[in-house]
Amino acid sequence: MHLDFLGNQLSVGDFIAYPGSGNGRAEYGLILHKITVLKTDGVGERSIQTERLTVRYPDHKTPVISRGKSTIKSLTKVVLVKPSAAVQTIFNNGENYPEIVAGWIHGTKLINWEDGH
Fold this sequence. Notes:
Largest sheet: 5 strands, antiparallel
Radius of gyration: 15 Å
Distance between the termini: 37 Å
Helix content: 10-25%
Number of domains: 1
Shape: globular
Number of strands: 5
């Protein structure tokens, strides 16, 4: 079984929170990931593959959203979360919400998750 920090069982399709890294403004905060693969190697070590939303600014002003892939080996650093329907919609279709996702990822915008604005 793949368990999170609190002992919750993880499954493909679940959302987790995982700490970010880097030198950016909010990159040390928690990042929302969606589990895509559960892995167990030959000696019983467990890991997960996930996708997360990323933002870049090719013209230095307009956000472009894409999906990044991660492999997380330390499951003691993840926690299962149950995002609202609005959060899941924006996560699953992030490319259609570049301004909201950019503010969300950078932690610079307070988002009303009731209506997604």
